[in-house]
């Protein structure tokens, strides 16, 4: 009886993403949606002027709701029926702590009590009595405290927990659910009590797929504790992009990629962190994570706060072929890292494309480019480079762009080098003489000066 509506034990809890910002409900059970859909269809039929006869099941549920005072327990009913009775009482807001007692040991699977009035710790004993049958609980907006979460330890098959707007739950409450390793969805949105230390207990929730800590200001720096959650697919945060928490978020992304590379899930990849705004101190943590991405082929980190020290973590990326650091506050000192790792080997042996435009480069140190023997395209435009450096920039193969494209001695494979808006004069161009190739010289600043004549 009622078996057709039964929810399978291994069925994942659906997330009603369209209503995330409206109702505050994080997840709804299949049975609750079933009843809700039937009620909504009745309303729609009435709006069209048609009266639909309710099903026998609906009539039974409505009758139980009307006579709820007569029942002391529903434990003898099939789970499907007791689940629908519970959902109807919640929907009509008739459920009280006294009526809740009738659902003790009913093996209910989904308890959607989000924003339900009067919900507090004393309700949790009946809620936890569902035992291993319980799969999802929504307690958002309730007065449940840390002590109220202790009984949930017996609900070992819980998959989804929603504690949004539960201001009385702190780090201690998180510790009580740390052993529920089957949880895939966990939400603590708008909580001022949880701190970075509290997140450390979540390391045991290895099956987490979705985690919501949106508007939880105390968790700054705590995301590093989630580095072992390799199944995590969705992480909701709302942080200041200049704060340390954002750096930790990116750190988690890189830790996940390292795991993928280690397990051979990814053979090659590109990472684009262009224009991320983290402090110099935070960038050290972020860029230190690049060192293990040995299969990385492209890295875009333009307009970030990476420094010469941060570039040192790129050593060992033996498959990196493209590096874009335009607008980064690096100097010629970073070339020591990029060019040579020891006497015989280049730090980035297969680097083909290097963009150092709008950095803090000067003539001093530019000779180190010669160690990048496979380099094809080098962009050092808008730097403080003068004609004196051109003695090191010879052997241009071809020009693909309207800008000046050059090559250093020893870089026999380089096809282009961009010196746009650098301080190159006629004397500097003498250093390019004596080579048998065709080249078009077209400096933007030169063209502008000609237009003024």
UniProtKB/TrEMBL annotation:
Region of interest: Disordered: 1-22
Membrane-crossing residue ranges in chain numbering: 235-257, 385-408, 428-448
InterPro entries (UniProt xref): FBXL15_LRR, Leu-rich_rpt, Leu-rich_rpt_Cys-con_subtyp, LRR_dom_sf
Pfam families recorded: DUF7885, LRR_6
A Gene Ontology cellular-component term: SCF ubiquitin ligase complex
SUPFAM superfamilies: RNI-like (SSF52047)
Domain of life of the source: Eukaryota
GO terms for biological process, alphabetical: SCF-dependent proteasomal ubiquitin-dependent protein catabolic process
Annotated keywords: Membrane, Transmembrane, Transmembrane helix
Ranges for domain F-box/LRR-repeat protein 15-like leucin rich repeat: 151-205
Protein name: F-box/LRR-repeat protein 15-like leucin rich repeat domain-containing protein
Organism of provenance: Rhododendron williamsianum
